[in-house]
Amino acid sequence: MSSGRSSGSSGAGTGVPGGVVNGGVVNGGVVNGGVSFWYADDGLPERREPLSGDATADVVIVGGGYTGLWTAYYLKKAAPFLRITVLEQKFCGYGASGRNGGWLYNGVAGRDRYAKLHGHDAAVRLQRAMNDTVDEVVRIAEAEGIDAGIHKGGVLEVACTPAQLARLKTFHETELSYGEKDRELYGARETAERIRVADAVGASWTPHGARVHPVKLVKGLAAAVEALGVTLHESTPVTEIRPKHAVTPYGTVRAPYVLRCTEGFTAALKGARRTWLPMNSSMIVTEPLTEAQWRTVGWAGREALGDMAHAYMYAQRTADDRIALGGRGVPYRFGSRTDNDGRTQSETITELYDILVRFFPSLTGVRVDHAWSGVLGVPRDWCATVTLDRSTGLGWAGGYVGSGVATANLAARTLRDLVQQDSGQAGATDLTSLPWAGHRVRKWEPEPLRWLGVHGLYAAYRAADHRERTMPGAESSRLARLADRVTGRH
Ligand SMILES: Cc1cc2nc3c(=O)[nH]c(=O)nc-3n(C[C@H](O)[C@H](O)[C@H](O)COP(=O)(O)OP(=O)(O)OC[C@H]3O[C@@H](n4cnc5c(N)ncnc54)[C@H](O)[C@@H]3O)c2cc1C
User: Fold this and answer.
1) Does the beta carbon of 284 sit less than 6 angstroms from any atom of ligand 1?
2) pTM value?
3) What pLDDT digit, counting tens, does each position of 53-84 carry?
4) Nearest CA owner, ligand 1 atom 22
5) Which H/E stretch holds residue 178?
6) 108 lines ligand 1 (CB under 6 A)
């Protein structure tokens, strides 16, 4: 991970110290891809044995990210006699669960739409369940001895322009209306007491958030699941899911319940190309900052940090005192293509670096040690869902957009309850009646409309953000609102 502060800039084009080109370890020591910094930090795992021939189970789970692993965990805890098999194409945590920004927080994609569809109270129940989920993950990590670098400092979202401040106030009021009575609104001075983001004019803080080391969490969870007696097969891609069957090149696993937990990779499954759009998110991480640098930044509370830009950023102060910062980058690849082990375009790295030094000008020149990307799943209506089709035994959970670290846990407990209800082991629960259970939505449009729609959305966001930054007094952009409507986001 180490590298000297380098003057050469071979790929990024602007001022990212060290320079970055695509293709692994590069000049100045900046690592690009390699799945994620979190794996560079904690080590890539030894792979578990692949499937070796046909098999049977009571429940087969496709995908070994947070959703699949939490589902296996809660099902096995509830019914230890169940034979549960998890099939993972690479290794557990290969996807977004091993690459994310480590915001374990109470956001859930689609809540406002669920309020419109099912009423405000139903959405309040979903929100309360999400608030509790943050504590549930912290509790289970502790109970299972998973040291995931968890620090519960809440989430701080800052506004840096008048238009962002207007959105922040609306956002804050909306969150209060969903029962978040413990959320606080700060002016510029109070914000600066927590963190010195240049130009910050206000912030909204919620206690319902924690910083985690994503890979330590997913590795610990996989180990806990295995210790419970769940069978995990890695290096085992599922090529087709159909009722009672998960088909792989090495054999088929037959089970009454087949649960799809493949999030941003779902499009690669037969018949699912237009189900959830694989959206990219990209991150950089700095070298560890010195105490003197931290004095210029503040951030003693180690809150998860975000902003109110249309193309928003997210960041955490890591356990070893780096800044890990993410944003959208290249939003989507034509034809729902997904991934290249996290390899990230140099323009995206430059863009993220520019955000970093715009937020913290005193860090100009700070070294970037690693850059990576991952995919998240976006349904056509941008609403996360948990569904079990009782006629086929096929289930799925996901479509979390960018908010899946905590949501996957709530989704997994909901899937557990739906399976238990369907198999007669339990009745309906508070979770099975949450408004996202059983929600269905139409597919995305064929190409090139998908590509045009998503790239148009982010072009509109960037233009709106630029306008808001450069024209003091600019109102929240109409263009961004229109783009939201066209792409189904709001
Ligand atoms: C860069 C980035 C930053 C993010 N930051 C945050 C954040 O800070 N906070 C937050 O709440 N959310 C964040 N997210 C989103 C969050 O990480 C995800 O929503 C969450 O991890 C989803 O978990 P999952 O298990 O559903 O999906 P994944 O973690 O993607 O797991 C799916 C698994 O299924 C496997 N798989 C896929 N297809 C097949 C197949 N056909 N056969 C077998 N296995 C298969 C994959 O290899 C993968 O391991 C971020 C996402 C990214 C990419």
Assistant:
1) no
2) 0.93
3) 999 999 999 999 999 999 999 999 999 999 99
4) 404
5) none
6) no
